[in-house]
Amino acid sequence: MDSAEIRSRFLRYFADRGHQIVPSASLLLDDPTLLFVNAGMVPFKPYFLGEAPAPYPRATSVQKVVRTLDIEEVGKTTRHASFFQMAGNFSFGDYFKAEAIPFAWDLLTRSIADGGYGFPEDRLWATVYLDDDEAIDIWHKKVGLPLDRIQRRGMADNFWSMGVPGPCGPCSEIYYDRGSEYGLDGGPVVDEDRYLEVWNLVFMQSERGAGPAKEDYPILGDLPAQNIDTGMGLERMAALLQGVENIYEIDTTRGILDRACELSGAVYGRNAKDDVALRIVADHARTCAFLIGDGVIPGNEGRGYVLRRIMRRTIRMMRLLGAGDPAMPELIDATVLTMAPQYPELNDEANRIRQIAAGEEAVFLQTLKTGTTIFDDAVQQVKNRGSNTLPGAKAFALHDTYGFPFDLTLEMAAEQGLVVDEEAFRQLMGQQRERAKADARDRKVGLTATTEYRDILQAGGTTEFTGYLEAASDAKVIGLLRDGVTVPAAGLGEHVEVILNRSPFYAEAGGQLGDHGRIVTADGGVVEIYDVQVPVPGLFVHRGEVVVGEIVQGAVVTGEVDVARRKAISRAHTATHLIHRAFRERLGDTATQMGSENAPGRIRFDFPNPTPVGALVLQEVEARVNEVLLDDLEVSAQLMTQPEARAMGAMALFGEKYGDQVRVVSVGDWAHELCGGTHAMRSGQLGVVTFLSEGSIGTGVRRLEALVGADAYTYLAREHVLVNRLTDLMKAPSEELVERIERTVTALKDAERDLTKVKSAQLVAGIDAIIG
Fold first, then answer.
1. Same domain, 619 and 764
2. Which of 229, 372, 610, 626 is the most buried (most CB within 10 A)?
3. Comparing C-alpha atoms, which of 195, 207, 119, 120 is closest to residue 157?
4. Nearest to 507, CA basis, from 475, 537, 477, 485
5. What's the domain count of the chain?
6. How crowded is residue 331: how many other Cβ atoms within 10 Å of its Cβ?
7. How far apart are the C-alpha atoms of 29 and 130, rounded to whole Å?
8. 682 and 554 in one domain?
C-alpha cells in the first residue's frame, strides 16, 4: 500500500464518521513558543486551550511536521526523522476515550478490502499512563485486548505535551509486534525496536507550565473541555504495510535515497557508514524542500539557521559519499517527484525551491573551500610547534565562524596524523548551547500571558471586524488591560489595551500595519490608538494612551479610524499586489512574495531571485505597474472556497494560514490574490508608484522598496528639482547629464593625478637644489 493510499484511507475513515477533513497547515504558524509545527495538533492548539471556538466538533488531518531536537540521531537510527507526516483525528469536547480507542483499533484491524489497514489483532499491544484504569477497561472490556498485552508506563512515555507550555494529557500508545527476529519478548516496555509504536492517542485534558520537556513539569489545571488528539506516523505505518525494514526504505523516502546513490556512486546496504549518510540525505532533502516551500530562507538565526544547518549537512554528506557536482537541485527534484502526489503545491513551487537550494549549496561549497584553507594553516602551525593536537578553540572557530562541520575537521585532522582537542571544543559548544537555551527560555517565558485574553474571549466573545465597510463603529468595551492585567478603568496618561465587541480598526496582519485612530467614550474620554494586534484568534487588542478623561470596562464607545492613514496604507497594499503580479509576469512564477510591509505611502516587498534584478527589468516592472494605474481597474474582494480561488489563478502567500473560505482581492481581471487586508477602490487611486531600491537581504532573496501616491509624487518632485539644478550647473540637457557628469568626474581624476605628478617633480627639484 503506497503512502498516498495510506493517507487517503485515514482521512476517508474519519470523514465517514463525522470528522471535518482539514488540509495540512504550513510548517510556520504564528506560535511564539515554536519555530516549526512539531505535532499534528499544533494548528488546533487555540481550540484545545479555549482561545477560539472550534469551527467543527471533530476533525481529521495529515499534518506535515518538522522536529530537530534529535537531529544528530537522524540516519544513525532508523526511527528518527526531521520531517514526517502525522495523521490524526481530533475531538474538541465532542468525544473522549470511549470512542477514540475503538476508532483506532477498528481502522488498524479492519480488512484492507473494507477500507482498513488489515493488522492482525494478536500482534497489537497497548500502553497506558500509570493510573489510567479507565483506558485499561476500554482496551480490555470494550475492544477485547488481553490484559497481558496492556502495559502501564510513566510520565516520560505516556503523558504527552509539545515540550513547551500548552495542552497536555495522559496517552495510550498502540504498538505492533514485528516478531522475535527483531528483539526480546516482553512488550514495548522491554524492546521498542521489536514492538514498534504506530499510533498515539492523547487524552488532552490539562494545561502544562514551563519545565523539562518530558516530565516533572507543573500541571496548571484542566482545559475548558476534554479533548482527543491522536497521532499516527504515516512513514512508520508505510514501513509496516510495505514490508520494508525502516522509514527510509518506504516509497516516498526511497526515491530520494536512490537518487542520492545515483549522484554519488554509493550503494545502499554496502557499508554502514555510507548507509547512515544516505539516510541523512534522504531525510534532510525532504525537510529542506518543505521548509523552503513554506517560506523559510537559509540564514544565521531562527528558522533560517535550522534550514541552513540541515541543508549543509545534506551537502556535506553528498560530498563524503563521492558526489563531485552540486547535488541539491537534483535532490529537490527527487523530493518533488515522490511527495507531490500528496502535496501537489510542490509542483508549483519546485523552481523556486530549487533556486534557493542551489544558491545555498554554491555558498556552502565556497565555505568548504575557505574552511579548508584555514584548516591547512592551523595544521601547519600545530606541526611547527611539534604538537599533534589541533586546539579545540580552532575547531570551534572553524565551526562557529565559518560553518565548517566538526566531523569534517575530525576527519581531515586524522588524515594529517593529528587529533582534535574534542573536550575543549565540546566545552565551547556547551557554552554556546547554554546561551541558546537561555535565549529559548527567554523566548518562552517572556511571552505575554494569554490567560487574560482567553478569559475575556470566553466571557465576551470575539471581536466583530467592521473595517471593510466603515471607518467608525459604535461598540462596547469588553476588556481593559494595563501591563497585562485586567483593570476596571484607566485614566489620563495611562497606556492600556482596549478590547471591543465591534471594531473598524484593522489589526496588523499579512504585512499590513495596524490602524491608528481614537476610541471615544460617551463621557468624552479619548484613547489615542497607536497599534492593533490579534494575540489570540478572534480578539482585537487596541493599544493606546488615554489622552482625555478615562475609559471604563463595559463603556459604550465609538472607534474612529485615522482615515487618511488608512487610505495611504490601503494604496500601498494594493500597489504591493500589482508589484507582485508584475514581477511574476517579468521573472516567472518563482518571483513569489516572501514578505512585505505596507506602511502609509511606502512599500517593502521581498521575493526570491538568485541574482540582482537588472535596472532594465526594474524599469519594465515599474512601468507595467503604472500602466495598470492608468487603466483605473476596479479593486474588488470576494469570499470563495480555496479550490475556487485556485481555479481563478489567485496567489497565496508563504506561511499564511487560510480557512475553508478565503477572501480573494482582484484588481480587474489582471491580479488575484488571497488577502484579508484593506485596499483602494480602483487602481487609479494609487496615483503613481516609483521604485527606490532593490538589494539582497539574504541568499537568494531580494528586497524592493517603493513609494506610492503622494509620497511617490513628493519624491519625484524633489528628483525633478535636483535634475533641473544639475542641468543648470552642467549646462547640458537632462538626457545628457549622466554622460556629462561621468566625463567631468574622469577629467577631475586625471587632473588630480597630473597635479600629484607636478608636485612630486617640484619636490624632487627642490631637494636637488638644496643638495646641489
1. no
2. 229
3. 195
4. 537
5. 6
6. 30
7. 34
8. no
657 — pLDDT class (breaks 50, 70, 90) = low
- Could you tell me where the DSSP H helices lie in 21-127? 45-49, 97-109
Note whether 377 and 393 are same-domain residues: no
Question: In terms of Cα–Cα distance, which of 304, 319, 301 is closest to 356?
Answer: 304
Around 240, how many Cα atoms within 13 Å sit in the side-chain half-sphere? Answer: 26
The answer to whether 378 and 394 have CB atoms below 8 angstroms apart is yes
pLDDT of 450 reads 63
Residue 596 is assigned to a structural domain of this protein = yes
Number of other CB atoms surrounding residue 255 within 10 Å: 15
Closest CA to 230 of 109, 60, 54, 23: 60
pLDDT in tens, 250-262: 999 999 999 999 9
Share of the chain above pLDDT 70, in %: 95
Instruction: Let me know: does 331 contact 337? Beta carbons within 8 Å.
Output: no
Q: Assess whether 517 and 650 both reside in one domain.
A: no
Among 522, 514, 474, which residue's Cα sits nearest to residue 497? 514
For residues 12 and 138, membership in a common domain is answered with yes
Domain-located, residue 205: yes
Q: Is 614 exposed, middle or buried (0-12, 13-18, 19+ CB in 10 A)?
A: exposed
**Strand pairing report for 464-465 and 502-503:** parallel
Q: How many residues does the chain have?
A: 772
Q: Please say whether the dihedral angle defined by the alpha carbons of residues 735, 739, 742 and 747, taken in this order, is positive or negative.
A: negative
Among the candidates 531, 561, 591, a domain finishes at 561
pLDDT digits (tens, 9 = 90+) for 9-26: 999 999 999 999 999 999
| Separation CA 48–CA 39 (nearest Å) | 14
How far apart CA 328 and CA 339 sit, in angstroms, is: 16
Same domain, 708 and 766: no
Co-location of 557 and 647 in the same domain: no
Residue 675 in contact with residue 594, Cβ under 8 Å?
no
Question: What distance, in Å, lies between the first and last C-alpha atoms of the chain?
Answer: 102
In this prediction, residue 448 carries a pLDDT of 44
Q: Please name the residue ranges forming H helices in 446-522.
A: 451-460
H or E element that contains 503: strand 502-503
Amino acid 220: pLDDT: 87
- Asked whether residue 591 carries a pLDDT value surpassing 70, the answer given is yes
Which CATH number covers residue 74? 3.30.930.10
Residue 206 lies in a domain: yes
Residue 727 lies in a domain: no
Q: Specify the amino acid at residue 707.
A: L
The last residue of one of the domains, among 185, 220, 242, is 242
